[in-house]
Design goal:
Elements (H helix, E strand, L loop, with lengths): L2 H7 L12 H10 L11 H13 L3 H8 L6 H27 L17 H17 L26 H5 L4 E4 L2 E5 L5 E5 L6 E4 L3 E7 L2 E6 L5 E6 L6 E2 L5 E7 L2 E6 L5 E6 L6 E2 L5 E7 L2 E6 L5 E6 L6 E2 L5 E7 L2 E6 L5 E6 L2 E8 L3 E7 L2 E6 L5 E6 L6 E4 L3 E7 L2 E6 L5 E6 L6 E2 L16
Antiparallel strand pairs: 1-2, 2-3, 3-4, 5-6, 6-7, 7-8, 9-10, 10-11, 11-12, 13-14, 14-15, 15-16, 17-18, 18-19, 19-20, 21-22, 22-23, 23-24, 25-26, 26-27, 27-28
Helix pairs in contact: 2-3
């Protein structure tokens, strides 16, 4: 066994790794600490520490610390042969299911591209030159998109609570992508800097996966679109009125209003469109190979199906809305009991009431349940996920609560339905900066 491993498992405190530098080295040592209490509490905490290190590093330091040499093509191909064959088999199986519905997706990649197409070729050429000149562009994806956008990988496009609240904001690494509905799709750093408009579409149900943003485009009858994270290659993926988008890996799950809100899925490239159920489905939550939804075909009761459409199962008997799956629980607003906050296990069982107020816009985030309390004028409140005393976050009358890092993005009905953000503890309320485009109350729909 390696002597360093023996020293570490024996509880010895190691020196900083060579070439890592002070800040990066401290993160490494904390992650590898012999004492569990000294380690990061979660992968999210470690990621934030790494991103903080990155912010303070110069380019030459990044190159020295995390240089990742070009892999040999032959050896990489041989390593991936087994997994590639397995992925191909899965794709072939899914495509065979699509044939049963005799429906081909309608994709328009030529006519729906960004107005910026003229600059795309130059951008790609510049990027290829950068790959050859700058070793940073070949670094391993340790810090996320702050190194280079083309290196970012993630499996889920947005949180479940954000999606059932319209999906107006999503986070990827150091960036937040948001829609000021009717005023365009934007991105900025988490601190609000580096603001830029990506397109003028009225975007809902935003999901960010890798280099792409997926969304329902209200400017084009709620059709499914994607656009690159730098605002290029805007492409329409279907002709369905698309709601409650959940993007996981290579698949997009959604409720199809054009077919009575049945659940569909489609590949992220617009191929292999598959119908999964025949229920009128709302509040879509895709988690651990299951799809949870409020079944309006059965009085709003909670149901679940597998991501291939199999094993349709009823979970409860209450008329349920604003579903949030979190830690083996489903939190929801019980319409049959005055919209009070309830929860039930993902496998069923007894429904448990958590609050007696009229709770809407439910979003579970960091062991807290955030919601608007319509019994108290629509103010923003929260309580612990296992119940307890309600806390007031803000007295604003809000809608569409979307959680991004330590902020809540929301529609402020006390200020002309403008997009605001506020700290999750109620601090630092402010209007989110956007370009001055015309907007109207009609751009917001009712949840």
């Amino acid at each position: 066994m390696d002597t360093k491993v023996l020293r570490l498992t024996g509880g010895e405190i190691l020196n900083l790794p060579q070439l890592a530098g002070q800040a990066f080295g401290e993160v490494i040592l904390k992650a590898c600490s012999f004492n569990m209490d000294d380690r990061f509490e979660s992968s999210i905490e470690m990621r934030k520490a790494l991103e903080s290190v990155l912010e303070g590093m110069k380019d030459e330091e990044k190159n020295e610390a995390i240089l990742f040499p070009k892999a040999d093509g032959g050896s990489e191909e041989s390593k991936n042969d087994g997994s590639n064959e397995e992925l191909k088999a899965d794709a072939d199986n899914e495509e065979s299911k699509a044939d049963a519905y005799n429906e081909e997706p309608k994709i328009d990649t030529e006519n729906e591209k960004s107005k910026s197409d003229g600059g795309n070729e130059k951008l790609r050429n510049d990027f290829e030159e950068e790959l050859d000149k700058n070793p940073l562009s070949r670094t391993i994806n340790l810090f996320g998109p702050a190194l280079i956008t083309n290196k970012f990988l993630n499996e889920r496009g947005n949180s479940l609570g954000n999606i059932v609240n319209g999906g107006i904001a999503a986070q990827q690494g150091l960036w937040v992508y948001y829609s000021n509905v009717g005023r365009g799709l934007y991105r900025s750093k988490l601190d609000g800097s580096d603001l830029g408009m990506l397109c003028e579409d009225s975007a809902w149900f935003i999901n960010v996966i890798g280099n792409w943003i997926y969304y329902s485009n209200a400017s084009d009858e709620d059709r499914l679109y994607k656009i690159s994270i730098d605002g290029l290659e805007r492409t329409r993926l279907n002709d369905d009125k698309t709601w409650d988008i959940n993007v996981l890996g290579d698949w997009i799950y959604y409720c199809n209003e054009s077919d009575g809100f049945k659940i569909y899925k489609i590949k992220t490239d617009g191929t292999c469109r598959i119908k999964l159920n025949n229920d009128s489905s709302y509040s879509l939550n895709v988690e651990h190979n299951w799809i949870y939804y409020s079944n309006k075909s059965d009085k709003g009761k909670i149901y679940k199906i597998r991501t291939d459409g199999a094993n349709r199962t009823k979970i409860n008997n209450n008329e349920s809305d604003f579903l949030n799956v979190y830690n083996d629980w489903i939190y929801y607003s019980n319409k049959g009991d005055g919209f009070k906050l309830y929860r039930v296990g993902t496998f069923g069982g007894s429904d448990e009431m958590l609050n007696t107020g009229m709770c809407r816009n439910i979003n579970v985030h960091g062991d807290w349940v955030y919601y608007t309390n319509k019994s108290e004028g629509g103010k923003m409140c929260r309580l612990r996920a296992d119940g307890g005393i309600q806390e007031t976050v803000a007295v604003y009358k809000g809608d569409f609560l979307n959680m991004v890092d330590e902020f809540v993005f929301f529609c402020n009905k006390n200020d002309g339905e403008k997009l605001y953000r506020i700290g999750t503890d109620g601090s630092m309320p402010e209007e989110v900066e956007v370009h001055d485009l015309p907007s109207s109350d009609d751009d917001w729909f009712s949840l």
